[in-house]
Specification:
Elements (H helix, E strand, L loop, with lengths): L11 E7 L8 H10 L4 E5 L5 H17 L3 E5 L2 H7 L3 E4 L6 H8 L4 E6 L2 H9 L4 E4 L16 H11 L4 E3 L8 H6 L4 E4 L1 H4 L4 H22 L3
Parallel strand pairs: 1-2, 1-8, 2-3, 3-4, 4-5, 5-6, 6-7, 7-8
Helix pairs in contact: 1-2, 2-3
């Protein structure tokens, strides 16, 4: 496996383009607004979209991401990732095992895995994953998560022990994304706080600025 052939996960907000939020907007329109705010990575999550519509949406969103110079990952759906030319997939607790996702996708695409602790991160690395989503960092209402809230300190402990870049997941918003960045996150996954904002693009810009502020604060705190 040639990991160097895969794109690097860009640091910063990791935006979810989700079909359960803002149903009055198409997935293509949601993606356009997220990208207009400077999003560098989108995860397309389609839990309610019928299969044929999902393929069309995946192709539209992937194409928009690539025009904008951003990465697009599919939540769970390896088949749609392959058919749409996406940059990879993210698989969760009940999705396709990461080993199978890697086998199907080959060496050129990214595989992310949701884990709950450092042991899970090490197992994900052994299975061929490129990064892990760790959480919930905070309480979340976007989806039901059968795991305890880690809190910032618990999350930071997992980050320190993880052999892979970590994306903070669960309840991340403008009010706390700087804390997630300061705790060592490579990225911070944001769903409702971006998509439910009156101005989605402006909210993405604010999230990016806050994440960068958290990184700078952590860097300064670590300076002698």
């Amino acid at each position: 496996m040639n990991a160097s052939a895969r794109p690097l996960l860009p640091k910063g907000p990791y935006l979810l383009c989700d079909d359960t939020l803002r149903p009055e907007l198409s997935l293509g329109e949601k993606a356009a607004r997220l990208l207009a705010g400077g999003a560098r990575i989108l995860q397309l999550r389609m839990k309610r979209t019928p299969p044929r519509e999902a393929l069309a949406a995946a192709r539209e969103v992937v194409a928009a991401c690539h025009r904008a110079g951003a990465l697009c990952l599919l939540n769970d759906r390896v088949d749609l990732a392959l058919l749409s030319g996406a940059d990879g997939v993210h698989v969760g607790d009940e999705d396709l095992p990461p080993e199978a996702a890697r086998e199907l996708l080959g060496p050129a695409r990214l595989v992310g895995v949701t884990v709950r602790n450092a042991e899970g991160a090490r197992a994900a690395q052994a299975a061929g994953a490129d990064y892990v989503g760790v959480g919930p960092v905070f309480g979340t209402t976007t989806k039901q998560v059968p795991a305890p809230v880690l809190g910032v300190e618990g999350f930071a402990a997992v980050v320190r022990a993880s052999p892979l870049p970590v994306v903070g997941i669960g309840g991340v918003a403008l009010t706390n994304i700087a804390q997630v960045a300061a705790a060592g996150a490579w990225c911070a996954a944001v769903a409702s706080d971006a998509l439910l904002a009156p101005d989605i693009a402006e909210q993405v810009r604010r999230l990016s600025a806050a994440f960068d502020s958290g990184l700078r604060g952590a860097s300064l705190a670590g300076s002698p």
